[in-house]
Amino acid sequence: MTITTTTHLNFRGTARQALEFYRSVFGGEIALATYGEFGMPADAPGADRLVFGELDGGGIRLMAYDIPGLDDASATAGETRRENGLTITDRPFFQSLRATSLDELTGYWDALAVGAEVAEPLAASAWSAGFGMLTDRFGVTWVLDVRAS
Description:
Layout: E1 7-11, H1 15-26, E2 29-34, E3 50-57, E4 60-66, E5 80-83, E6 86-89, E7 95-99, H2 102-112, E8 117-123, E9 131-135, E10 141-146
Parallel strand pairs: 1-4, 7-10
Antiparallel strand pairs: 2-3, 3-4, 5-6, 8-9, 9-10
Helix pairs in contact: 1-2
């Protein structure tokens, strides 16, 4: 038996923009389907929003959709910050990205950090040659690190 897990991100009207942003960071191909394509009348509010979206490639796979009826793109679920070496959060999950080298990780960090709120700058830590945490402009908190050898 083969099993995989994929993060499915839920957005408030910005799923398409988020997937396009993640494609610019990671590469890969995007598949999209709107509520209108699934039968919602084309003139109904939200018909152009995503009922299904997927990024596949570059070693990462993400799925996303727009929550029906929720239009406040600025709203995010909770906050994340670092205080005195501790992570303080009320978010239900973080997205983890692990690379085998600091050079590889730095490229992803630099791209994800555009418009992000940095909770912990990317730097060497006691357990990794590189560790950092940020919440991107779409409200997803990423934990990036270099795999310990």
